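User: Predict the structure for this protein chain, please.
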Amino acid sequence: MTNAAGDAAREVWLRGNLRPVVGLAVAGLLVGAALGAAVLLADVSAAFRWLAAASLAAGAAAIGGLAVAASRPRLERRGDCLLVRLSPTQVHELPLEIVECFFLGSHSLEPEGVPPRDDVVTHRVGTLVVRIAERALAYRERPTFGPWGTWQEGSIVCDGRWCEPLSAERARWLSGRLIEAKRSAAARRAEPAAGAHA
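Assistant: Here is the predicted structure, written as structure tokens:
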């Protein structure tokens, strides 16, 4: 549903993913349980016990905050903008008119700076690439949380581990939604001009 200004309810285009946080939460739970048991069994002061409890609570809160952030959509359409969330703390607005396309890609999981070797299997992760028009110089790059993806040199790259499963079908669906959104925006822009000539 849109209003005259072209604003719309948010439409999720690419969901987030909690899978990586679940592993972190399980590891944190095991470490926290071991630490808690050690503190309870040890002959330590009450102040130390309170400090340990506060540390465990802070760790649990951090993991909970990351889980909430990770569950939020990576890409959402709102009116004539694409909301890009590649950081737990920031959402960037990208005008749809400068989004050119979506396509699948991949990147190596090997550490940066390590040259590839023929005798070692390189592990790769799927990505979704959002290409931005070259003329949009103000949108060439933005800060991101590296594990979620990058925004550099006019391309937004969403890491497949931190979003819903990627597929050719999802990329085609996104491209179709992009075309529909651009047509809808063009039609809205044309309406006032047509009314002025009536």
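Strands lie at 11-14, 75-78, 81-84, 92-95, 99-108, 124-132, 149-152, 155-159.
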